[in-house]
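Note to self: keep these together.
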Amino acid sequence: MKRTFVIIFSFCLLFNSYLPVEAKNTDTLPVTSTYTEYISDDLYAEVELCITPENANTFSTHSYSKTTAATYASTKQRTASKTYNIKNSSGTTIGSYTLTGTFQYNGSSSACTNTSCSTSVSNSHYYFASKSASKSGNTATGSFTFVDTLFGIRLTKTLTLTCSANGTIQ
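Structure:
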């Protein structure tokens, strides 16, 4: 009986250890980097840059010349966001500003096609007095003014996202 149990258990382990594993395609995962910026003794910011993978776009070429159609056919699009997380000395996020930009590039040029921004605060002691997002050429620019009424801090900051001709975003 004991020998039968050992044999059955061994077969179960043998067949159970062969499970198909799905590998994740890392080309579809966003790339994220973070750095810390000190504001005061009581506040600091964690700045997070998140870049989505490249996407080849499909453009209609019926009304363009062959040269223009070839350029559009090789144009790619990428979206990135930069989030400025303002934290207190205990590490709690008290306010966040996010700049998002969408870029097109083709190896010889790039352009920012869309920008937006969003904010959030943890309670009524904090607020954003102003916020904006704009685009110019291959750059998305965002600005904000954050007010901390507890410590009397007023922080004005400008963030940028820039895309190179080959799709590198900084």
